[in-house]
Write a structure and sequence with these properties.
With about 725 residues, this protein is α/β, with parallel strands linked by helices. It is built from 24 helices and 24 strands. It starts with a helix and ends with a helix.
């Protein structure tokens, strides 16, 4: 794993070998880091079939309720991985990590739909493949937490297919299947229901569904489980069709095929959560005989028990393609010439899920899951509007309100979470018996806690920075920076000219096209014939693309534009400070309970606003003594004018909860009306939590419910319903 020093180094160096990003001097200007192609022979074709929102609920994984004949047959020719985990329980953060090979908590794309600004040098890994001569396609979901650059894919869209590649070019293709998505479990769409009915004897009987112990055994729950199994069967048919196309094209023996899920099943306590039910996924990989030794693959039909993380997928593809894995990538190749030693641990995170904030970090080894709840004051069962539409979720909330849930069924609705959870997945596969407090497990807890904190330090985990503050850090005043326009140096020779393209913004990728052709990834000088025009622009993740620059072979060379904000990147600022170390150290106070109160009071004056924020939360949820509360309210009042939106809003919420006053309420209403998007979300959540104490803000909540975009209106809807 990268150390803090490594993180600084990778800002200027992101790889070596066939897909190296080099820096050179051209015409007195520093060239943009670009891939340089070195194609000695075509590598294997690589196909990814990804399915949304599925756990290993497949026949080949031993699920006797599943009906998945195509995937089961495919598994007989492949290796089944039994311990593959995603880095989160929801799609966008997972996909952000998959496409970059980086932990999202380290590149700042951990909160759902967060529009990130990844560190300098972080790329979409298909660029390395394109530079090495691969034709790369994506059909068709991106959802990377940033706009995908045009340099990422040769083709990305509903018609993208390996069949569109130039003759004799190896391909890397992704086909993403949405049929099993959460929304399809609850869908009453006539077309979907007709397709399910046509399954005939493959349609699932709800009475035979396997009901986990954390669900009530009801008709509605069984109905959701059955429809989930039905849409997985429909998805299985699509997998069969894709494999049939590959066979029809005569490519089965030339193509390495991955089948995987983007996270766990789209039901309560599955999707969005970081138990096995939310992060354990199917991963099945077919390696043709001719590549088996090269890939280090087991024989067909074998089972692999190594720990695999979803951040490993990208670097494994690079390894199989014979492309050098850039040094900055967090993921580990688990196949191919660059295979690394087997993992001891996998890690996962839960941060904002749609409109609901949380902060959980986990580490898993072969047997034990360790979970650190950084916001233990929050219930598991926060309202998430999209999730609440599921029939079984609605019923569980109703049964909980009526006091009719029993045993493990009630766990999800606890008002608080323990600071630590530990589960023995061998004896407790559903992870319902938290054994963290058992003295017999002290050594296990100590070791896993140590590994988790080391990981958080090593990757520079930004999850403890409240999102309104982090947004200001990554994109001040919500202004998206623009990449510098490239410069073009032309060297003429007779009727042709050689074009070399440079850019002053570090970490960019350069796209170009000749005449009206498609956009290509610039990796080596381009030859222009008489009359041809070259158009180019620069792209960087989290930035606006540059202006386009166009020349022909008779043009004069152009200089690159002098827009350069490299020194301002948030990652550099954090790496050159002790802020993250201070946050990790401060959060150890969680274990001290009420004994930490003096330290929380002291921290209200800390230089870092993020520490002040956590100090407010610590006092808000620890204080019981009336004198302490009076003292805290006085201290919080002085923070209502703080420079940090998260500090202002949290201080105002605590005051309103303890000793309501109009000034604190005004702060919340003003933030709801006039703040940045995440400040408004913070304020809406605070007002919703306050319940009846927020009644004077009802008009403001109604207005925000009608006028807000993003997630704010959803929170306001629930707040208004609660008050009315």
């Amino acid at each position: 794993m990268a150390s803090k020093l490594d993180r600084r180094e990778f800002l200027g160096s992101i790889g070596i070998g066939a897909a190296t990003f080099i820096t050179s001097k051209i015409g007195g200007c520093t060239a943009a880091s670009q891939p340089s192609a070195d194609i000695s022979s075509p590598g294997p074709n690589i196909l990814w079939i990804s399915a949304e929102d599925i756990s290993p609920d497949l026949g080949c994984y031993g699920d006797d309720y599943a009906i998945t004949p195509n995937i089961d047959t495919f598994a007989k020719t492949a290796t089944r991985f039994d311990r593959a985990f995603t880095t989160a329980g929801v799609c966008a953060p997972v996909r952000s990590g998959v496409i970059t090979g980086m932990y999202t908590t380290g590149i700042g794309t951990n909160n759902m739909r967060s529009n990130g600004v990844p560190p300098i040098g972080v790329k979409c890994f298909p660029e390395y493949l394109r530079a090495a001569g691969y034709y790369c396609t994506n059909r068709s979901k991106t959802d990377y937490q940033f706009k995908p650059p045009i340099t990422a894919w040769d083709d990305s869209g509903s018609k993208a297919h390996w069949r569109n590649r130039p003759k004799d070019k190896p391909f890397f293709s992704i086909i993403n299947l949405t049929t099993s998505h959460e929304s399809q479990i609850r869908s009453k769409n006539k077309n979907l229901l007709d397709r399910i009915q046509k399954l005939g004897d493959q349609k699932h009987d709800p009475a035979k569904a396997n009901v986990p112990p954390y669900y009530p055994d009801t008709k509605i729950v069984r109905g959701d489980l059955a429809q989930y199994a039905d849409v997985v069967t429909l998805m299985d048919k699509q997998v069969g069709q894709i494999l049939a196309e590959l066979k029809a094209d005569g490519l089965i023996e030339n193509t390495i095929v991955f089948f995987w899920g983007d996270h766990g099943r789209g039901l309560c306590r599955g999707k969005r959560w970081i138990y096995d039910s939310g992060t354990l996924i199917p991963l099945i990989i077919h390696v043709p005989d001719k590549y088996r030794l090269f890939a280090g693959s087991s024989k067909p039909g074998s089972i692999n028990g190594e720990l695999i993380s979803s951040v490993d997928f990208g670097p494994t593809v690079l390894s199989l393609a014979g492309v050098q894995i850039p040094k900055h990538i967090n993921g580990k190749a688990f196949m191919g010439p660059q295979k690394t030693p087997e993992r001891e641990y996998v890690f996962a995170a839960r941060d904002r899920m749609d409109e609901a904030y949380d902060c959980i970090r986990t580490v898993r080894e072969n047997r034990y899951w360790y979970i650190r709840n950084c916001m233990p004051h929050l219930t598991y069962a926060q309202d998430i509007d999209y999730m609440n539409q599921m029939p079984s979720m609605k019923q569980m909330r109703q049964l909980n309100d009526e006091g009719k849930l029993t045993g493990a069924q009630k766990q999800y609705f606890r008002t608080e979470k323990p600071i630590e959870e530990l589960f023995d997945t061998k004896t407790d596969p559903h992870e319902i018996n938290n054994i963290a407090a058992d003295p017999a497990n002290k050594k296990i807890i100590r070791n896993m806690r140590k590994e988790l904190y080391k990981w958080m330090r090593d990757i520079g985990d930004v999850g403890l920075i409240p999102e309104p503050d982090f947004d200001q850090l990554k994109r001040p005043d919500e202004i998206m920076q623009t990449t510098s326009a490239p410069g073009i140096t032309l060297s003429k020779s007779g009727s042709t000219a050689t074009a070399r393209i440079t850019c002053l913004t570090q970490g960019v990728s350069i796209a170009y096209k000749v005449d009206k052709g498609q956009w290509l990834l610039y990796s080596k000088p381009v030859t222009l014939k008489e009359g041809q025009k070259l158009t180019t622009k620069a792209c960087r993740l989290g930035f606006k693309d540059s202006e386009e620059v166009t020349v022909d072979n008779n043009s004069k060379s152009t200089l690159p534009e002098k827009i350069n904000s490299n020194s301002d990147h948030w990652r550099s600022k954090l790496d050159n400070s002790d802020m993250l170390d201070e946050l990790l150290k401060f959060k150890q106070l969680d274990f001290k309970g009420e004994k930490a109160i003096p330290e929380y009071f002291k921290a209200l004056n800390h230089n870092y606003s993020h520490i002040r924020y956590w100090a407010i939360l610590g006092l808000h949820y620890c204080l019981k003594d009336a004198d302490d509360i009076t003292r805290a309210v006085k201290s919080f009042d002085s923070l209502l004018n703080d420079d940090s939106a998260s500090v202002r809003v949290s201080a105002a919420e605590a005051i309103m909860d303890f000793l309501p006053n109009s000034r604190a309420l005004d702060i919340l209403v003003t933030s709801l009306k006039n703040g940045t998007e995440k400040e408004r979300l913070f304020a809406a959540i605070s007002l919703k939590r306050l319940g009846e104490k927020a009644r004077p803000a009802l008009a403001a909540l109604k207005a925000a419910e009608k006028d807000s975009s993003g997630y704010v209106w959803r929170v306001c809807k629930y707040a208004v319903e609660k008050l009315e």
